[in-house]
Each structure stands twice: as structure tokens, then as C-alpha cells.
Amino acid sequence: MKEKSELTGTRVDRGIKLLREMSEEGKAEILLGVEAFVTLLMQYRCAIREMETKLNVLNEEFSLRHERNPIDSIESRVKDPSSIIEKMNRKGHELTVENIEAKLNDVAGIRVICSFVGDIYYLASMLSAQDDLEVLKVKDYIKHPKKNGYRSLHLIIQIPIFLSDQKKYMRVEVQFRTIAMDFWASLDHKLKYKKNIKNADLIVEELRKCADIISTVDNRMQEIRDMIEKGESE
């Protein structure tokens, strides 16, 4: 069996040979495609920064008014190229920069972790009311959980970025979860990729039960939070 380094070297040699055999027009087309793809990923990173700024402003304003932060943490990412290619192929779309931008809603993603369910809907409402962005789609997996128990509020938001020569609207998927929902989703994701598990159906059912328990705790914590706030105002 060939060593991995030897196989990699063979692929590189083949790639170099193909490039040498291509016309100048063909080489230029590849380079332009790579440049356009890199530019698109840069624009998605800019969109994430714009969205993070809006969320941080809302968090700071809420903190000033209510003496607590609705946001526990914010995580963001731009899909890596291999994930983008895999998803485009899976959905049967031709792999072009234009199609990536037109067909995929989650190339840029932000996960907002909140302490309370009420904070999730507050932040989503405040974002939706801002006139320089547009909420294109809402998937409420808190009120309508997935069959496996997954809970989260997903918004597809179109937000402007300001480049040197243009204003451009980019799509960002924003996921809102409580700390407990995020804990469950993280473990579910890790277990999902385990192979050759015995009693898989039983484990799936146990995970769903855990999701229900977590939801009950989230709702109870919200009720306690409301009781405290009511007591403070009286």
C-alpha cells in the first residue's frame, strides 16, 4: 500500500500536469473562479461582523435597562469550502460562486446563547424591527421541536455590508438557544456520528426524553425569572 504522502504527491503531480496542458484561457477561468470564491467568503465574514455588532448593541442596551445580559455568548463561523461543496452536491446544485450565494442560506452562521427563552424572543423581535435588515425566514424549533427533541430558533437574515465600491446584502443564519438547549444539541451532535452503537433506537428515545426535561427546566427557570422581576418592580 502506498504511503499517504506518496499518494498526495501523485495527485499534485497530476494537477500540475493538467494545468500545463490547459490553455491560457482555461487557466484564467480557474483563477478567476478561485478569486471570486475567496471574495465571497470574505463578504460572508463581513456580514457576520455586522450581525455581531447589532447583537452586542442590543445586549449592552438591555443590560443598561435591566441590569443583566440577555446574551450569554456568541459563536460564529463561515462554512469551510469542503462543507460548502458537499452541501451543493447533496442538493444537486451546480458548483458555481453564483449558486453558492443564491442557493445556500447558512454559509455564514451565528449561534446566540441566551440564559432564558424569553430573551431569545426579545432579541429576535428587536432584530426583526430594524429597518436596515430583512428577516427572510423563521424556523421556530422551540415551539415546534424536531422529532429528535432539537430546540432552537433559526432566523435567516439579509444584512447589508459596505464595501469600497458597493453596498451588498448578504444572508446570515442566526440560531438562538438557551444554555441548556445548546448543551443538549452539542451532545446530540457528537453522538450522532458514533458508529456501530448497540440499542441505537433506545438511545435516540432517551435523548428525546432529555430534550423534554431540558425544555421543562428552561420554562421553569423563565417562570422564576419572571417572579423575581415582578417582585423587584413592586
**Total domain units:** 1
N-C termini distance: 77 Å
Number of strands: 5
Q: What would CATH call the class?
A: Alpha Beta
CATH H level: which superfamily? Answer: Beta Polymerase, domain 2
The helix content is 55-70%
Average residue pLDDT: 87
Low-pLDDT regions:
1-5
Order of helices and strands: HHEHHEHEEEHH
Shape: flat
Count of helical stretches: 7
What does this protein look like?
This protein is of the alpha+beta class and 234 residues long. It has one domain: 2-Layer Sandwich (Beta Polymerase, domain 2). Helix content is 59%, strand content 19%. The protein contains seven helices and five strands, in the order ααβααβαβββαα. It has a five-stranded mixed sheet. β4 and β5 form a beta hairpin. α6 packs antiparallel against α7. The termini are far apart.
In short, what is this structure?
The protein is flat and about 75 Å long. Strands 1-2-5-4-3 form a five-stranded mixed β-sheet. The protein is built from seven helices and five strands; from the N terminus they run ααβααβαβββαα.
Key terms for this structure?
234 residues, alpha+beta, Beta Polymerase, domain 2, 5-stranded mixed sheet, 5 strands, flat
